[in-house]
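Possible race condition, two jobs.
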Amino acid sequence: MLYSFFNTLVKGYLKYRRNRIQDMYDDPFGLQQEVFYNLLDKLKNTEYGKSLHNGNITTLEDFQKFIPVVDYEALFPYIDKMMQGKENILWPGKVTWFAKSSGTTNDKSKFIPITDDNLFDNHVASSWDAMSILYGNRPEARIFDGKNLLMGGSLNHVNSNLITGDVSAILLNNMPAIGRPFYTPDFETALMADWEEKIEKMARVCSKEDVVMFAGVPTWTIVLFKRILEITGKDNMCEVWPNVKTYFHGGVGFDPYVEQFKKFLPKDDIEYYEAYNASEGYFAVQDRLKEKGMLLLLDNAIFYEFIPSDQVDRPDPLTLTLKDVELDKDYCLVISTSSGLWRYKPGDMVRFVTLNPYRIMVSGRTKHFINVFGEEVMVHNTDKALKETCARCGGIIADYTVAPLFMSDASKGGHEWLIEFEEIPSDLPTFEKVLDDQLRLTNSDYDAKRHKNIALQALKIQLAPKNSFNHWLKAKGKLGGQSKIPRLSNNRKYLDELLIFINQNN
C-alpha cells in the first residue's frame, strides 16, 4: 500500500517536472537568462561580489568583464573562509556542508561548498528530472515498487558547523525520512567509510532485496556485482534481481564496460542512462535511450559558459553562451552556481552533439589528454576505439590508462597502453593492431601522425594483472569514492608508477 501510494505521489510531481524539461527544449535561452539573474541577485550580497566592481554588476557583459574565469586554486581562499564558519563569502549565509572531491590519484582533495540552495535547486531537482525522463520514456515504470540501490560515499563530521564528504553521501544524509524505505542498503551501510567493508556488507544486504533500479560508477558497480554473485552462486544479476530495469551511470565513460554489463544483465529490456553529475553540480542526463548525448539541464541553478579548446590556457579566455556554441567542437565547461562557484572551471571538456535541444557529451578533462605529438587524443576517442576493438576481437576491459612513449634516437614516439582485462582477448597482437586502426578512424589528428609512421609508431599494449588498478589505489589510500586513475596523461607519471607497483607486487 505504501509503495502504491508513493508511486502515485511521485508520478504527480514528475508530471510537473516534465513540463519544466519541455521548456529546456522550447525556451533554453529564457531558462538560462532566468537562472543568470537569480544568481546575480545573490552575488551582490557576498564578499566576493563586493570585491569585484563593488557588486554593481547588472548585465551579462559586466559579469563577463568583471568576474574572472577561475579554477579551484583561485577560489580556495574564499572557500577556506567558509570552512572556518564565516558568512556571506561566496554565497549569502553560512555553509555547513562541503563535498570532498578526491579527483585523480595524486590530486589534492577539493572541498566544494554545498549550500541549501545548491543541494535542493540543483542536485535534488536534477535527480527528479532524471526520474521524470525515465517515466516519460517508460510511463508504466514503477520505480518505487521495489528498491533503488545507490552507492554512496562517506561523511566526516569535523565539528558541529563543518561536515565534509562525498556529494552522494551529503544527498543521502539529507534525504527526507519518507524516501528512505525505498532505497537499499540502509543508510548506516551506505555511508560507511571503509570501502572494502562497505562493498562486502552492501553485497550481503542488497542480494536479498528486490532491486529495480541502481546507480553508480561502473567500475565499483562491477566490483559489487562480482561479490553478490559469489555470495549467491547465481550466474548473473538478473537471477538476483529479476525486476531490475534501469541503471544510471556516470563518472567514467561507459563504452569500455558495455560488454561486461551485458554479461551481468543479460536482458534486452535493461535501460542504461548516462548522467553527468559531480561535486560541483548535476549538469546533464541522457533523455533519449537510442541517441548519444545528455540533455543539458538549464533550469537547475547553474549558468553555463563555454571556452573554445584553443582558448583554454589563456589568462583571459573567450567565453561563449549557449547561443554561440557549435556542434562537434570541444569546449571547456565554465559554471556559475548556487554554491558560490562563480565562472568556475570544473576541469571537464564537453562537446555538443545536438543544438535543438542542447545535448552534450563529456569529451575529456582539461588536464587529461595526450597531445605530445600534436595528435590531440581525448578520452572519448580512446573509449570509442576500445569499444569497437572489443566488439571485433573479443576481450572485456576492466580499466586502462595511456601515456606517451617519447621519441629517442632509436625510435619514434607513440602511445603506451596499460590495460587490465576482465577477459584477455585470444589474439593480443591482433587486438593491438585493431585498436590502433580504430583510434586512427576516430581521431584524424592521430591518423595523420600515424601515416606511414612519419611521426608516431603503432601503439603498444602492456597487460596489467587483475585488480592491479584497485590495489594501487588502495596502497595510496585512494580506494573507492570518486578516486580514479586518469585514462590519458601527457606525461608518464601515473603509468610508470603503476608499472613499478605491478613489478614489485607480482
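Job #2 (started ~2 s after job #1):
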Amino acid sequence: MSKQSAFDEQGFSQTVAILIEEIKALYLADDTPWVVGYSGGKDSTTVLQLVWTALAELSDQERHKTVHVISTDTLVENPVVARWVARSLETMADAAETVGLPVEPHQLTPEVENTFWVNLIGRGYPAPRHKFRWCTERLKIKPSNAFILNVVRANGEAILVLGTRKAESSVRRHRMEKLEGDRVRDRLSPNGSLPNSLVYSPIEDWSNDDVWLYLMQSSNPWGYNNKDLLAMYAGASEDNECPLVVDTSTPSCGDSRFGCWTCTLVDKDKSMSAMIQNDEEKEWMLPLLELRNDLDITDDRHLRDFRRMSGKVQLFHDRPIHGPYTEDARHDWLQRLLEAQTWIRSNGPDYVTDIELISMEELHEIRRIWVFDKHEIEDVLPGIYYDTTGEKFPGPDFDDVLVLSADDLAVLHNICGDDKLHYELTRGLLDVERKYRSMTRRSGLFDALEKIVRRCYFDDEEDAVDHARRRSLPFAVIHADADAGSGADADAGAEVIEVDSTG
C-alpha cells in the first residue's frame, strides 16, 4: 500500500524537524545564493516558512549568504491575490530586517513590451490558446529567468528553492523523477532551462493535505496569518470549503486556481467566480469576469484580420487562417478594459479605488505601436481614454508628427468609402513616406512601401482567398505549419497554403 502522507513514517513534528535540518545543512554547504519562488499560494508559502525557520535557527555568523524571494506579478493577476502577495512581500521585508535574516523579497514584472495588454490590444495577438500560448513565456518565465541569470552572473551559480510537488500532476511527477537521476548533489536537481542553476524542492513528496496541515500547525514567521490564506483558498472554491485530511476522496484546496484573471487556457475562471459567489464584497470583480469570458469565445474570426501578422494569407481547409485582432476589435477591447477600471474605481471597496488594470506605461506603448508600427495615424487612443475615463490622456501631442490631420483623414475616408483596404493602403503609404521624408539616406524606403502594398493588395477577404486558391508553386508555399494559428481554424501539422499578396 502506498504512503498517503509524508508524515506517515515519522510523524508530523519529526518529519518537519528533519526537513529543517536538511535545509540548514544545504544552506551551510556552500556560498551559492538561494532564490525562492514565491506566489503567495500554499506551496510556496510552505517552502518559504521552512526556509525562514531554518535560517532563524542559525547563528548570525552562519547566515552567510542571501536568500532572494522572487514573486512575479504578471500585471493581470487576480486582484485579490495580487494585493495579498504585495502586502506579504512588504511585511516579509520588514520582518527580515527586524530579526536580521538575509532574506530579500523582490517583486518582478514583465517588460512593458511583453505585457498581456500590450500584446493583445497593442499588437493584436488573439487571446492565448494551447496551440498559441504566447503569454506564459512573456509574463512569467522571462522576468524570473532574467533575475536568476543576473544572480548567476554575479555569483557563478544559483540554487532555486521551489514548492513543486509530485502530487500536483502525473506530468510533474514524471519530470521530477526523471531529473532525480541527474542530481549532482543530494536533493539538488539540474535546472533544465537555465545553466549553472540547481533546483531544490523540499516538499516534493508532500500531498495537498500535508501542506495544509503544516500551515495550520505552524505560525507564519514573517507575521502573516495562514488562516487568512486558508480562507482565501476556501473563498475560491465552489463549495466555499477547504477540507484538510479526511480521506482520499475528499477534494483539497489545491484544486482552487489562482492566476491571471485574463487566462483563456482554462475553460473558465472557477476561482474568481467562486470569490464573487461566496463574498458580496468581491462582486466588484464581475466586470473582470465578464471581460475574461468575452475574450474566451470559441470562434473569434469575426474579430480578427484575414491576414497573418506578416500580412500573408494562409488557407486551411480552403478557409483563411485568421491573424491578429482587427483595428476595430483592439479599440473595443481597450474601451471595455478602461470602462471596467473606471467602474471598479467608482463602485468597488476602498482598497480598489486606485486599481490599475492597465498601466499608463502600457497605454503609451500601445499608442506607439498603433501609430508608428501599424500606421494607424488617426491616433485614437487619447480619445478612447477621455471618453471612458473623463480625463485627458497625459501623453504627448502627436499632431506635429502625423502625416494627416483629422479633417484630412475624414476626406480620405470619404474618398475610399467602404473600401477599407484602399483606405488602409493609402494611409500606410502616406505614413511611410512621411517617416522617410526628412532622412538624408532613404535606405529601406522601398521595402517599407512594398510591405504596405503586400498587406493591402487585395480587394477584400474573398478576393484574398480566391488568390490563395488559384496560386501554384513557386508563388505559393505548401508546408506544415506547426502553429498555424490559434483557434478553430488551426491544426498543427496540417497542410497550409501561404500566399503573398503580390503573387
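The two ends are 67 Å apart (CA to CA).
Logs attached separately.
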